[in-house]
Every structure is written in C-alpha cells, then in structure tokens.
Amino acid sequence: MLNQSTILAQDMDLFDIRENGLYGFINKNGGAIIEPQYVYAGRFHEGMSIVEVNGKMGFINPKGEMVISPRYQYRTSFSEGLAGVYLNEKYGFIDTSGRVVVDFIYNGGFGFSGGLAPVEFENGMWGYIDKAGNVIVKPKFDLASSFAEGYGCVMERDKYGFINKWGDYVIPVTYESAEDFSEGLASVTIDGLDGYVDKNGLIVIPAVYESTGQFRGDMAPVQKDGLWGMIDKEGEIVVPIKYTYLGYSVRGINSSRYGGKIWIYQ
Q: Does residue 172 sit in helix, strand or coil?
C-alpha cells in the first residue's frame, strides 16, 4: 500500500501535458508516463488525477489506471482524502474508492481544508461542513472559499473579509475583493487597486497595483501600468515591473516550465 509520503512524491513527479488536443503525463525527466489520451486531465493530488472521458469525469492513479469510473460533472481534485463532485446537478463528496461520503444535496462547493469545506446550500447561501456532513459554520455568506492557513475568505453584501473555523470574523468584510492567504499574506482590493494584508488585517503592502498574485517562495507577481514584475514581502521590487507576462514555479517542473525559474515575455 502506498503511504502518504509516496503519494506526495508521485504528485510532485508527474506533470500534465497537452499534445494534439489531448492530455497525458510526463515525469520530471520528460518521459511519457501516461500517454496523451484524455480531453482533460488535472494535476495529481493525493495520488489521484481527474480525467474527462466522453464528457464525464473520473479519476486515475499514477499508473494510469481508472480507479473511479467516469460519471461525474465538474473538474475537481482530492483534498484531505475527499473530492467534491457534481452528480445530477448536485454537489457532494466522494472518497478515493468512489464511495459517497457526503450526499449530493448542495448547489456547489469547494475542497476540504483543515477538516472543513465550503458549500452552497439550497437557499443560495454558503457555510462550512465537516467530513461527516455536519454543518459547522451556518450558511450566512454570499460566497466562501476553502480555508487557507486557518483563514476562510468570505463575501457578504459584495464585500470580502476573513473568518476563523468557528465562523467568527477575524478580518472584517471591508474589501472589494480578496484572495486566500499564502505565506502569511493575502491580496486585497481597496479603491480598485490591490495590496496585501497580514493575518491581523494590517496593510503591509499598500494597494497600488492593478493586479497581484499569491506569495510563493517569498515573492509575488504584481501588475502596474499593464506590466508585470515581482515584489518581496517588504514590498520591494525584486523583478522589474516591465514584462507583459511573468510566471514562476517553486515546486519543480510544471509541464514544460522549469521550477525555480522565472519565465518572462517582453
């Protein structure tokens, strides 16, 4: 039986590719492990990748074996041992054997994090459930995301803020937009521009950018005057803001992109 460390290693060592309109997987040396054959294939998470076959979604293991037959709608991935999927236009959760763990009774949802998952209830409001389907945070939000670093990003009356796992606000809903926390900081929008707050809700990088990304490896992409660069957690520019496109990876190769590198277009 594969242990968790083996599964995580396989997740890191397999990368999705697209060839002639079909998806497959290669290893870190560029060798084909699963030949391109799927209309869609997601990256491996917890030893499973969602693939599309004849308009339905199923899951394969790193050997390319179909372990959960294609019958679901919606592209998703496993998180904490469960995957959220749609069946007959309702959302629920299955485990890695395909067993239904949380019934298909929700309008929508996102993956588990810290033992909780955000789901949209029949009344259109969002709350959080545990892995047994128990309601932990009552549905009272217009939108909610999976927890990241202990904080859940939620929307109420077109404003965004953050809650803890008990549903209490830790950062008030005052922002026009907000992204999940990453490496202790979250991007927020104030008066149409983006900056970053810490977990105390303090603005640590002023909102002066047209767009921003999450911090990874102590750096984040930012856009100003239509061009991209990168800043550090002090807000200092570490890659000049002069590129029309910028991306980077810190986890090894990402398809044809090599980790630890920054790729740019001028």
A: strand
Q: Which of 29, 32, 6, 27 shows the shortest CA–CA distance to 15?
A: 27
Task: Give the tokens for residue 94.
Answer: 């299955």
Q: Which residues contact 72 (CB under 8 A, 6 or more apart)?
A: 56, 57, 58, 85, 86, 87
Find the helix or strand (DSSP H, E) in which 5 lies: helix 4-13
Mean pLDDT of 164-168: 96
Can you tell me the distance from the alpha carbon of 6 to that of 265, in angstroms, rounded to the nearest whole number? 36
For the entire predicted model, the pTM comes to 0.84
Average the pLDDT over each of 8-22, 26-40, 249-263 and give the range with the smallest value.
Answer: 249-263
Report the alpha-carbon distance of residue 102 to residue 95 in Å, rounded: 9
Give the C-alpha separation, 40 to 52, whole Å: 5
What are the CB-based long-range contacts (under 8 Å, 24+) for 244-251? 246/221, 247/221, 248/216, 248/217, 248/219, 248/221, 250/216, 250/217, 251/12
- Which of the four pLDDT bands, split at 50, 70 and 90, describes residue 248? low
Q: Where are the domains of the chain?
A: 1-72
Q: List pLDDT tens digits, range 54-89.
A: 999 999 999 999 999 999 988 788 999 999 999 999
